[in-house]
């Protein structure tokens, strides 16, 4: 069992990651509603942060269970593994934030955890079922978001035949408030649970749960939801610009379709306990609504750069996580 001060320090780093997750992924929740000028940026982040926070009241903790027990074997986890995982994820998040690349905070965390876990115990540390589901979700979530957004664009077109363009714009400026809220709810439900899983498995592995079953204490739930909401409230303007205008230009109706398609995908994944990327999901949905207008409406060079970042995230964060683990072990000390 590690010392209480070290435990508190690691929990603090985990909550810092959660805060950065909200900061980094604020664009996912607000880019469309800002780019369509339905809300001013400061109101948009407040709207998103509120629904980020209350997500714990809507969803169970299936994703937290997956991250806590379904990526790396729980008996492999120790303070050095958790530290390596968090530093791998935080480092990659900072790098991509500075460059304005909408990479996945979720997969950065999972990559860091895999890198540190494998560095300690080799491939036997991996829970292959959970990892395979996560990797499949890397490809499936943007595809599902894209398809749902395309279907919604078609439905919106049919239901708006008798409306003038101004009437359509007026209707969906109101409805986009709802779609943005739903997407923020799904984002808070899926993403905050990943940090809950990290903190809970640290407590469990170090005997701070009294030898009982793996659970997520309620104080951990509230802390993680609050940290993510505060991060979202701080905004992530570099990535908002990329997501909201560089991929394609959006109208309120298109923003509604993108957010609703993304929200449905996140809701389903969260209820099934699959840690997906809100970044991947909303990017696929935005590409879908842009392509529905015409293929040339999508800036495919920007979209392709984002896709490359998706492929690089897991191994890059994993390598950093492994490197931090080895350095931590070499230094020794409290770890």
From TrEMBL:
Keyword Transferase found: no
Mode of membrane association: Multi-pass membrane protein
Listed transmembrane segments: 45-64, 76-95, 107-128, 135-158, 218-240, 302-327
Subcellular location per the Swiss-Prot or TrEMBL entry: Membrane
UniProt key word RNA-binding: no
Keywords from the named record: Membrane, Transmembrane, Transmembrane helix, Transport
Main location class: membrane
Superkingdom field: Bacteria
InterPro entries on file: Phos_transporter
Protein's recorded name: Inorganic phosphate transporter
Organism: Sphingomonas mollis
């Amino acid at each position: 069992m590690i010392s209480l001060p070290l435990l508190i320090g690691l929990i603090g780093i985990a909550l810092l990651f959660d805060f950065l997750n909200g900061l980094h992924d604020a664009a996912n929740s607000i880019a469309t509603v800002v780019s369509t000028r339905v809300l001013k940026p400061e109101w948009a982040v407040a709207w998103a942060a509120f629904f980020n926070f209350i997500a714990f009241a809507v969803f169970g903790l299936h994703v937290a269970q997956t991250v806590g027990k379904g990526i790396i074997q729980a008996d492999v986890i120790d303070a050095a593994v958790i530290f390596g995982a968090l530093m791998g994820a935080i480092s990659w998040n900072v790098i991509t934030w500075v460059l304005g690349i909408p990479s996945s905070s979720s997969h950065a965390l999972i990559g860091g955890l895999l890198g540190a876990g494998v560095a300690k115990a080799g491939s036997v540390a991996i829970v292959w079922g959970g990892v395979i589901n996560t990797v499949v979700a890397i490809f499936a979530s943007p595809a599902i978001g894209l398809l749902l957004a395309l279907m919604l664009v078609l439905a919106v077109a049919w239901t708006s035949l008798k409306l003038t363009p101004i009437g359509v714009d007026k209707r969906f400026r109101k409805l986009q408030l709802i779609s943005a809220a739903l997407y923020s709810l799904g984002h808070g439900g899926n993403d905050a649970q990943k940090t809950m899983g990290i903190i809970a498995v640290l407590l469990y592995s170090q005997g701070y749960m009294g030898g009982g079953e793996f659970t997520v204490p309620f104080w951990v739930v509230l802390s993680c939801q609050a940290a993510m909401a505060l991060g979202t409230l701080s905004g992530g303007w570099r990535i908002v610009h990329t997501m909201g205008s560089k991929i394609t230009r959006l109208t309120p109706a298109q923003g509604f379709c993108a957010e609703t398609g993304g929200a449905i995908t996140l809701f389903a994944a969260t209820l099934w306990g699959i840690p997906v990327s809100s970044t991947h999901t909303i990017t696929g949905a935005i590409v879908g609504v842009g392509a529905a207008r015409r293929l040339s409406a999508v800036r495919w060079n920007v979209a392709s750069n984002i896709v490359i970042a998706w492929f690089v995230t897991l191994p890059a964060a994993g390598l950093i996580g492994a490197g931090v683990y080895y350095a931590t072990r070499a230094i020794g000390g409290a770890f």
